[in-house]
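Schema walk-through. Below, the input block comes first and the output block second. Nothing else is stored per chain. Lengths vary across the set, and this one has 153 residues.
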Amino acid sequence: MPDIRLPLGGLKFSVRVAILCVRGDRLLANTTPGLGFWFLPGGALSTGEDVATCAAREWREGTGTPPGPMHLVGVLENFFGPPEKRQHEIGFYLRMEAPADLPDKRFTVLDNPDYFYDWLPLDEIASRPLYPLAVAEFLRAGPGEVRHLVERN
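--- output ---
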């Protein structure tokens, strides 16, 4: 099944699913040396695939571990990128407590070995270059609460 990423009206439109994996007072994020920012595990939703299935698939592909229970905490309409590469992304953000078998230190992203995962302290999220910016707000969602945000960068 193809990913939902397509050129549309002079920009790239995509649907993304991301996981806010929390362990105590830390959040799992990924980056690569020299990138200059962090982002969440996840990836593109495929045609014919529901959000929960996509999240579980992306988790397994990236970490090699089975996911724990996840619940939706946010939906983001994200508009970003330079004028010549504008993007419009609809993102679904699911929260999950970190499975016990997940490493507690930095480790390589299995399906993209140029990238690595590491644990960011939750109290540093606002001061770190972590995208999207909505992550901090989604982490504050209470039980059963789903937040809808729009970011224009």
